[in-house]
TrEMBL record:
Gene3D superfamilies: 2.20.25.10, 3.30.300.20. SUPFAM superfamilies: OsmC-like. This is Organic hydroperoxide resistance protein. InterPro entries: KH_dom-like_a/b (IPR015946), OHR (IPR019953), OsmC/Ohr_fam (IPR003718), OsmC/Ohrsf (IPR036102).
Amino acid sequence: MSTAVYTASATSWGGRTGKVVTSDNKLDLDLSIPAEMGGDGGAGTNPEQLFASGWAACFHNALKGVARQRKVIVTDSAVSLEVHLVGGMATGFDFEVTIEAQLPGVDPVVAQEMLEAAHQVCPYSRATRGNIPVTLVVVPDED
């Protein structure tokens, strides 16, 4: 195993209807099954939301790094990530992901190139490459 720069650790109790806590207690969340999945739709979050949140933040940081290298200003940028759970119990569940980026004032062609470059360096994107279909979308500027 390589030498880790940082290690995150979390423990789950009760699966999708329990809780998850990080080893440093900075994250301590109740979990609920969404109504769309046959659950009670309770107040807790779920693994898909946690995955989407982590990947969105990581991808946005990768995108900002690409922008710095290319000297493109992305001050008011935002990245939204949708994790789609597809399939079913009979065939098994899989993920499909849509990553949308808002890059106000950036030419759409340049913005798309930057998304593709960020997708090459983001650790989540690298870890899931070839396993999860990902669609990269530049959200057009509002005129």
